[in-house]
Write a structure and sequence with these properties.
With 378 residues, this protein is of the alpha/beta class. The chain has 2 domains: 241 residues, NAD(P)-binding Rossmann-like Domain (Rossmann fold); 38 residues, no CATH class. It has 12 helices and 17 strands. The strands form 5 sheets. A 7-stranded parallel sheet has the order 3-2-1-4-5-9-13, with helices on both faces. It is globular and about 55 Å long. The chain starts with a strand and ends with a strand.
């Protein structure tokens, strides 16, 4: 079997390449090596580079994409711009890569360029849910709308019940939740996912959209300031710079370790009884607040930083995220193995081996302030 991984030189893609090679697959990687993600240039990890067919180029280059797909049995589509905040002002760039790049794949397939492809897996995102699922004492399971700027400026950060306007509590979000992204990144991932699932049915190619939660672990970019609070906080903590947590610090995420994500993705490439299209959550099922993350990172590096909650907030951010993993367990035989405390230790030990960098993060905050997308920063 031959798998083509678009965006395969990235954090998840390179790990998946190694895993699939160990399973006996032939692996091809198509990647543009964006400098934001790959500041060091055009290189795969040295242990896999001799065994991977590397194709350097743009996901919107028709000839290149068609040639890359020619001998693939399975296509794993990771190529995407990522970053909630940045997507709100780099709109055309995110549309081009995430939507037009995916549309090109299906334009090729629909016009007879299917070749051998028997299965497609796309990296979707929990961002497509927006605020996700909540429980209201009066109205039961509800799905709040995007939080208003007025409420957040007043310090009211939790969503309210969309039916009665009362308090509600975040719960695990299932795949049947309505899709109501609150960022342009989330919107592009929704369209990307829906393309894959729709054309999977039309072209009779079994297709799976994996709705990743917050993926982390050794190997993720420490220089890209637009994704990953673990990378941002670890850079700040190592040099003793203040760590300023948005909102009240009680916003929470479902952090899923890279090895668990890779195993789930490989399982999606091999679902024996799949004949249609489906979406599946991939997370850890563990709720961690952002303040907890900052405190644990600061403690690991000797508490050199002052951690404060500022009340500042970004447009497009959600309040809570927690995946319902029922379907992942049933369809992928998936069970997350790495608890956050253990995975964070592995990440921080790895991060500590490289030089910290904070300039990019400061620049990203200034960009968002200038565009009116970051409110309340001191």
């Amino acid at each position: 079997m031959h798998v083509l991984i678009t965006g395969g030189a990235g954090f998840i893609g390179s790990r998946l390449s190694r895993y699939m090679l160990n399973l006996g697959y032939e692996v091809s990687v198509l990647d543009s090596f964006s400098t934001q993600i790959h500041p060091s240039g055009y290189a795969l990890p040295p242990d896999i580079a001799p065994y991977v067919r590397l194709i350097i180029g743009d996901i919107c280059d028709r000839d290149l994409v068609q040639t890359s797909m020619k001998n693939a049995d399975c296509l794993v589509h990771f190529a995407a711009e990522t970053g909630t905040g940045q997507s709100m002002y780099e709109v055309s760039r995110y549309e081009r890569t995430n939507i037009s790049g995916t549309a090109l794949i299906y334009d090729i397939l629909a016009k007879g360029g299917r070749q051998k492809i028997e299965r497609i897996v796309v990296a979707s995102s929990r961002s497509i849910y927006g605020e996700g699922a909540y429980e209201c004492n009066r109205d039961g399971l509800v799905y709040p709308q995007t939080r208003s700027v007025v409420d957040k400026k007043s310090g009211r950060f939790d969503p309210v019940c969309p039916v009665c306007g009362g308090e509600c509590v975040s719960v695990e979000t299932p795949e049947l939740a309505p899709l109501q992204p609150s960022s342009f990144y989330g919107l592009t991932k929704q369209v990307q996912e829906q393309m894959v699932l729709m054309f999977g049915e039309v072209l009779k190619i079994p297709s799976t959209a994996l709705r990743y939660q917050n993926v982390y672990g050794p190997g993720q970019s420490l220089q890209n300031p637009y994704t990953g609070i673990l990378a941002i906080f670890s850079n700040l903590a190592r040099v003793g710079r203040p760590i300023q947590v948005f909102e009240d610090g009680l916003e929470s995420r479902d952090f899923v370790y890279i090895d668990d994500v890779v195993e789930a993705t490989a399982a999606a490439c091999q679902i024996a009884d799949s004949s249609g299209s489906e979406a599946i959550n991939v997370g850890a099922g563990e709720r961690i607040t952002v303040k907890q993350v900052a405190d644990r990172i600061n403690s690991f590096y000797g508490e050199k930083s002052i951690v404060t909650t500022t009340g500042a907030f970004r447009e497009g951010d959600i309040r809570h995220g927690l995946a319902d993993l029922t379907k992942a367990r049933a369809r992928l035989n998936y069970e997350p193995k790495v608890r956050f405390a253990d995975g964070l230790k592995l990440f921080l030990e790895w991060a500590g081996e490289s030089a910290p960098s904070v300039q990019g993060y400061e620049r990203s905050l200034l960009e968002m302030e200038e565009k009116g997308l970051l409110h309340g920063r001191v």
